[in-house]
From TrEMBL, chain B:
Name of the molecule in the record: Nitrogen fixation NifU-like protein
CDD domains (alphabetical): IscU_like
GO molecular function: iron ion binding; iron-sulfur cluster binding
GO biological process, one term: iron-sulfur cluster assembly
Amino acid sequence: MTATGSSTLPGLLPDLEVIRKDFPILSRRLADDRPLVYLDSANTSQKPQCVIDAMVDHLERHNANVARAMHQLGAESSEAFEAARDKVAAFLNAPSRDEVIFTKNASEALNLVANTLAWARGPLEVAEGDRVVITQMEHHSNIVPWQLLTQRTGADLRWFGLTDDGQLDLSDIDELITERTKVVSLTWVSNMLGTINPVAEIARRAHEVGAIVVVDASQAAPQLPVDVQASGADVVVFTGHKVTGPTGIGVLWGKRELLDQLPPFLGGGEMIETVTMERSTYAGIPHKFEAGTPPIVEAVGLGAAVDYLGAIGLDNIHRHEQAITGYLLEGLATVPGVTVLGPLDPTLRGGAVSFEVDGVHPHDVSQLLDSFGIAVRAGHHCAKPAHKRFGVQSSTRASSYLYTTPAEVDAFVEGIIATQKYFKVA
Amino acid sequence: MSVDLDSLYQEIILDHYRNPHHAGLRDPFESEVHHVNPTCGDEITLRVHLDGEPGHETVSDVSYDAEGCSISQAAASVMADLVIGQQVDEALRKHQAFLELMQSRGTIEPDEEVLEDGIAFAGVSKFPARVKCALLGWMAFKDATSTILAGTASTTTPEENR
């Protein structure tokens, strides 16, 4: 697919065709010899050749366990794994590499925080009478761990509601964030509505009452410069597979003084200092939270991925996403019977656009688009409460990334019109 | 348009989707169940009313309130057509035949004597992601009927499950 006249959109990445060649899967042909139009990047991003090569090279030439093998391959593997931690620390502008913990995914990272806060004793402990505040636009992975925490401890779970245009309703912030509030956990960018939240402002308010601020950057890290120091958060999590890295690896960044005070999450190899049959003492961070053999080749792939994004520049990627998202919103606005959920101003949102097509269920929209070679997501996108807020059970979501072209957006909008015709609703 | 797509969206399926038969919740009923497809959020609340002597019950009514895609809505409509008025064991035989058809990945030639309009769903079995959609109403029917026969039926759906 080549970008046509619309490739002059301001903000597009200048070498889009070159970037697309970095992603082998984008040349796939699907059934009926249709070219792939991949608009499901908020679900998982595609992988550039450099990430694939880094992982293959590690497995072919350097494979060994880390931090336990005394041989040459062990040293190479450990070095590659720890180099990935350095790369991620740089990607996040983390003050210290030791504050970067590798997890299985963002869900595990959020569960790590929620569980260790339940087990903590002293000022961090979340107990009966305390309050945890989340928002109505969270992914289930930033709802359920806090439900489990508050149910187990007797703490109180509260949340920010949403305005009609898909922003956080901050009008009751003074009632929500009080002296009782111990944790405020929110998404930076909504995976359903696309909304970009004022993380720094909420963090400032939360810190005034001494609460810990946890930020789910799963949708932000792919498309915004994520500076953990500027964010004001105490903990920031994201997942590798949405930033052009592999599945099976996530990242938890946390301030050292917090991570040092939290008890271990999983017990096992690597997280210990010494073990007797009666008791153990624990390693310092990051290893305290990395029990067992870690996802080694996945870390190598993630390191290559954040280097790749860094070379293109997150500011440039953000501008590209805004340009493509604006173009997509304009395209959908020309189709009668289509309603977008979330902010309509592309400067207020990320690159995931959820919408309804009158008279056609999202499954059926997605099925028709798939027959044209266009991959989107249909369903509740693991955000059932946010869907309920807008009175819908499910939606269709188109999500772009740094490799998305205006021509693909054109194909998508034409596909929606063809879908309406197929189901005789237009 | 691809051949596969038209085999999925048979005209008969789209007809049932636009004008579902036996839709709406009715009295009397001995069992009400609420089923969801957790991957997409599709939901159905379904009631079953049986008549007759134990061991020789007839399905007198199936009523439902469903929210979902064309495949799930049409499947519930066809299912209600097929089982209402049938002996329970015959209705459950149809359930089994439909389940086998859906799990066949396109390898079974459906029996029109048993499944009537249900044979239109043969194409769905080639789309693994849609099989659960087609089975949502059928599974709810099987569940509701089984609980009546076992004497464990509930006639109220807890509010939080709605």
